[in-house]
């Protein structure tokens, strides 16, 4: 996952508020209580006492990063001093009554009880308790008792319903209930607020749950309203158009209401609107019309929106815009930089589009422009954007070098150019304003500039997946005391030796990724990483045991540790009590199974040399969601209690061990299991029918065991089942009678090969394989099965070889019923499975003709019908399968001329051997007496059709074109161990 902003929890709310420039109310509402008068008389003693009692009802969490605004204001509250001089307190200049309390971002921790002394301050006019932690307490109805209240800010961690008495505050001018993600408001309460608060000018409900509120409830908002923020409130339905006609409205933010629809006025629209946010809504937006009508607009946030028309062709100048977000809209072409006024621009986010070309040059630098190889195509800007604070261009197709003016912007705080095609060196930054620098996933080369050491405010740095080289000097980081997130992974020419052996640097580091950096040991500077939370040292050359000193690192903070793909032999006791993710796969770990921390949710030790049995203590991991112990030497029984973990367990992988006995039968109702893989063990007995309780199951892999059963018909009750592998067991009997229905609408991979099934192929099964029918649905975005934490993998037989699909593409489809005792004809219904990539019915007793409907399988890449009793001619329709790379029709009774053209011109004799009646290329030429029907099957001894070990495939490379193999290569398709390395390297690289 790409991480952009990393901050301490005590500052999270304030800093998010600051970063979301679409929320100017943050600064206004936080500063609305800042005017104090030093000439006020002494405050009343009972009010002073009430404030002190209020202070003592909380614990104070003081952050080491306290600044001018965020600090414990109550530290100045002392008994015997005038409360009118305390931080955050405002008194009336005539009466001495406390009329203002501003304790925003003061580190208050604890609930506010209904009997709090705060409610005795009856003269309060302004109250700001925002950005504290009130332990999810509810808002007391007593907040509605402040009759003179004009400004109320409760933007903290409150939950529950908004009390109706808030609507009694008839003098309210500003109401801020933002950041209360556990709070909800219903239509009656909202209507009362709208009707009674007639003087309201600011209403901020950012994050309040309004999913059951009708947007029409906002119809009668006060005409004096200047700011309305409904960011991420769960609103749905059509938003009333009249809001856009409010005469004083300057800020409107409806962003992140995914199901909120509406449209902007197209005529008679005059508004003073200065800031508009419609990101991630269903609003229809005509961007040229919007820009033309909103003459006062300064800030525009349209991330992932629905646009009408061609936005670039008719865009007017955006010269008045200071903040612009058009990210993740799939816009393409060159962005018209000349439309922007770089002199006033402070925030620009064009991430997640398909913009091409280079960043513009500055007109004053004529020498650089003229010397540019692409000067004829260069776009220009008039002036260095000296006020720019955020330049976010991630995930585009931008190329060329980063222009020099980017490194000279004095105010630049966030520079995100990651996931592009930039080349050249990283330049020298002239100022120390940077907070976030993301340059990862480009083609940058050269050394890491020493000028980075001046960026003393830098909190996040990512330069991974580039071609950087040279030595990384520890002095670059010695002054970066604020750095919390660092990712230098996958720069193969970058040497980290002097950096990793440094000490006493990066004291606030919370996330570090040094994957694929050729490290031979764990970096020494981690000894002092007191706050480390996320550590990735995977794919290095770390050998031997984990050093003892490392077991003390982040003892109370480390939640994610990735040491996979190293050469570790032992890890010892794992002391991290709060660890959530532990990845030790693909090492050389020996001995018994390591015991992970109790609260782990992801634990993988696959592909090691671990021996012994799985102790029942594994069931103490009551919160584990992903458990992967595959490819080890574990033996004995699977602990029966593992089935009881299904309340949290999502993926369980025990493949390729030496486990025996039966599969646990205790999968309970409400089971969350999505993937269960037990392939390659010695398991016996039946499949547990209690798996019907696992309604989310997508992958079941029981192949290569000793399970002795008939086909488990109850599997059809699993609506999400996508992969079913039962190969190489002792399954037997018929799959069903002719009337049996097999509702497997999502099934994409089914492998029943090498069992003892008999009877006819189930026609109804093929009729219900909906996911294999719609070829057009496979043309979209490449997706893989699984989720962010864990992507499924299975081993299948594809084109005659065992392949491990390390990731399973959602479009991959295959059927393998080979090496059974199926008889009868091949159902014509298979011709409807137009998404099918592979079909194997070989080594059965199938008879009749090859159905011409197989020619409809235009995505098919391998077809094996060998070693059956098929008769007749090869259908000419098979020539239309243009992606067909492998065809095996050998050892049947086919006759007549072999079809010619397209892929059929690439197949060799091996595709047709044993069919004495066939003629034509590549076999013998057809003459007058050639191509005759061979003797009927009954005259051939049955022994010729016994199952054979191995395969008679011939991999045909000529004329193969751009079949599915290329896609699988991109998806990390690899041979399983023992297959020819040269062939792997030809197709898939190292």
TrEMBL record:
UniProt entry keywords in alphabetical sequence: Cell membrane, Glycoprotein, Leucine-rich repeat, Membrane, Receptor, Repeat, Signal, Transmembrane, Transmembrane helix
Domain Leucine-rich repeat-containing N-terminal plant-type, first and last residues per copy: 45-92
Subcellular location: Cell membrane
Membrane topology field: Single-pass type I membrane protein
Keyword Signal: yes
A GO cellular component entry from the record: plasma membrane
Domain of life the protein comes from: Eukaryota
Signal sequence interval, chain numbering: 1-29
Transmembrane segments: 951-975
Gene3D superfamilies attached to this UniProt entry: Ribonuclease Inhibitor (3.80.10.10)
Main localization, broad class: membrane
Protein family (similarity comment): Belongs to the RLP family.
Protein name as it appears in the record: Leucine-rich repeat-containing N-terminal plant-type domain-containing protein
Species annotation: Quercus rubra
């Amino acid at each position: 996952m790409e991480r952009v902003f990393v901050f301490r929890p005590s500052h999270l709310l304030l800093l998010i508020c600051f970063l979301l420039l679409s929320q100017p109310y943050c600064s206004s509402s936080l500063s609305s209580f800042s005017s104090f008068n030093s000439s006020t008389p002494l405050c009343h003693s009972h009010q002073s006492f009430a404030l002190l009692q209020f202070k003592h009802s909380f614990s104070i969490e003081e952050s080491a990063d306290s600044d001018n605004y965020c600090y414990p204001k109550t530290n100045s509250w002392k008994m015997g001093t005038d409360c009118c001089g305390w931080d955050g307190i405002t008194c009336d200049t005539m009466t001495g009554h406390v009329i203002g309390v501003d304790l925003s971002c003061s580190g208050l921790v604890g609930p506010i009880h209904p009997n709090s002394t705060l409610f005795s301050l009856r003269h309060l006019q302004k109250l700001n308790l925002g950005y504290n932690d009130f332990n999810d307490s509810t808002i007391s109805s007593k907040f509605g008792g402040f009759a003179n209240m004009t400004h109320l800010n409760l933007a903290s961690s409150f939950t529950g319903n908004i009390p109706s008495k808030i609507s009694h505050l008839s003098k309210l001018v500003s109401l801020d209930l933002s950041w209360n993600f556990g709070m909800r408001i219903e239509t009656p309460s909202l209507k009362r607020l709208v009707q009674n608060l007639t003087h309201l000018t600011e209403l901020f409900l950012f994050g309040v749950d309004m999913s059951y509120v009708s947007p029409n409830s906002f119809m009668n908002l006060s005409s004096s309203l200047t700011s309305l923020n409904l960011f991420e409130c769960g609103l749905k339905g059509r938003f009333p158009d009249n809001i856009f006609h409010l005469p004083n409205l300057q800020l409107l933010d409806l962003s992140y209401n995914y199901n909120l629809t509406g449209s902007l006025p197209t005529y008679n629209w005059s508004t003073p609107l200065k800031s508009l946010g419609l990101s991630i809504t269903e609003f229809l937006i005509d961007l040229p019309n919007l820009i033309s009508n909103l003459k006062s607009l300064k800030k525009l946030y349209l991330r992932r929106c629905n646009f009408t028309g061609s936005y670039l062709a008719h865009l007017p100048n955006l010269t008045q815009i200071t903040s612009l977000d058009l990210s993740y809209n799939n816009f393409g072409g060159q962005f018209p930089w000349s439309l922007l006024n770089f002199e006033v621009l402070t925030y620009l986010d064009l991430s997640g589009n398909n913009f091409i070309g280079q960043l513009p040059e500055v007109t004053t630098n004529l020498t650089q422009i003229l010397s540019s190889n692409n000067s004829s195509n260069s776009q220009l800007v008039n002036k260095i954007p000296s006020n720019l604070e955020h330049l976010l261009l991630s995930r585009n197709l931008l190329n060329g070098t980063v222009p020099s003016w980017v490194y000279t912007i004095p105010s630049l705080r966030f520079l995100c150019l990651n996931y592009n095609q930039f080349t050249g060196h990283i330049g020298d930054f002239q100022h120390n304003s940077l907070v976030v620098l993301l340059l990862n996933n480009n083609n940058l080369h050269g050394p890491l500039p020493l000028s980075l050491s001046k960026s003393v405010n830098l909190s996040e740095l990512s330069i991974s997946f580039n071609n950087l080289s040279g030595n990384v000097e520890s002095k670059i980081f010695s002054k970066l005391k604020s750095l919390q997130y660092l990712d230098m992974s996958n720069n193969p020419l970058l040497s980290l030796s002097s950096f990793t052996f440094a000490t006493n640097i990066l004291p606030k580091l919370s996330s570090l990724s040094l994957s694929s950096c050729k490290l031979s040991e764990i970096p020494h500077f981690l000894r002092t990483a007191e706050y480390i939370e996320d550590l990735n040292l995977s794919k290095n050359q770390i050998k031997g045991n984990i050093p003892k000193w490392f077991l003390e690192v982040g003892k109370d903070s480390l939640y994610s540790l990735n040491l996979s793909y190293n050469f570790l032999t032992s890890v010892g006791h794992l002391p991290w009590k709060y660890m959530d993710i532990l990845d030790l796969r693909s090492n050389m770990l020996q001995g018994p199974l390591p015991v992970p921390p109790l609260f782990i949710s992801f634990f993988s030790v696959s592909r090691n040399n671990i021996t012994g049995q799985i102790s029942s203590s594994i069931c103490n991991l009551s919160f584990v969601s992903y458990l992967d112990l595959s490819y080890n030497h574990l033996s004995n029984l699977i602990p029966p209690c593992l089935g009881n973990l299904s309340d949290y367990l999502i993926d369980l992988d025990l493949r390729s061990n030496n486990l025996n006995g039966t599969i646990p039968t205790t999968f309970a109702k409400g089971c969350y299991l999505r993937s269960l893989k037990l392939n390659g063990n010695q398991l016996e007995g039946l499949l547990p029918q209690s798996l019907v309780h696992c309604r989310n199951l997508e992958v079941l892999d029981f192949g290569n065991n000793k399970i002795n059963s008939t086909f488990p018909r109850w599997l059809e009750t699993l609506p999400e089942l996508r992969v079913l592998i039962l190969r190489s067991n002792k399954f037997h009997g018929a799959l069903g009678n002719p009337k049996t229905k097999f509702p497997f609408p999502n099934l994409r991979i089914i492998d029943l090969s090498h069992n003892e099934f008999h009877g006819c192929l189930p026609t109804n099964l093929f009729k219900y394989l909906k996911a294999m029918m719609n070829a057009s649905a496979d043309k979209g975005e490449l997706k893989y099965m699984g989720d962010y934490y864990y992507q499924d993998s299975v081993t299948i037989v594809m084109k005659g070889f065992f392949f491990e699909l390390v990731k399973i593409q959602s479009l991959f489809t295959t059927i393998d019923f080979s090496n059974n005792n199926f008889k009868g004809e091949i159902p014509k219904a298979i011709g409807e499975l137009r998404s099918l990539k592979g079909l194997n019915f070989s080594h059965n007793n199938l008879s009749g003709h090859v159905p011409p409907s197989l020619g409809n399988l235009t995505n098919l890449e391998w077809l094996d019908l060998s070693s059956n009793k098929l008769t007749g001619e090869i259908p000419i329709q098979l020539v239309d399968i243009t992606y067909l790379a492998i065809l095996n029709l050998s050892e049947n009774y086919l006759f007549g001329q072999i079809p010619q053209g397209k892929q059929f011109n690439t197949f060799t004799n091996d595709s047709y051997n044993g069919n004495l009646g066939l003629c034509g290329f590549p076999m013998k030429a057809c003459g007058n007496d050639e191509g005759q029907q061979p003797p009927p099957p009954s005259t051939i001894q049955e022994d010729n059709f016994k199952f054979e070990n191995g395969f008679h495939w011939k991999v045909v490379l000529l004329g193969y074109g751009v079949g599915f193999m290329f896609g699988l290569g991109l998806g990390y398709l690899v041979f399983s161990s023992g297959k020819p390395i040269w062939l792997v390297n030809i197709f898939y690289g190292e």
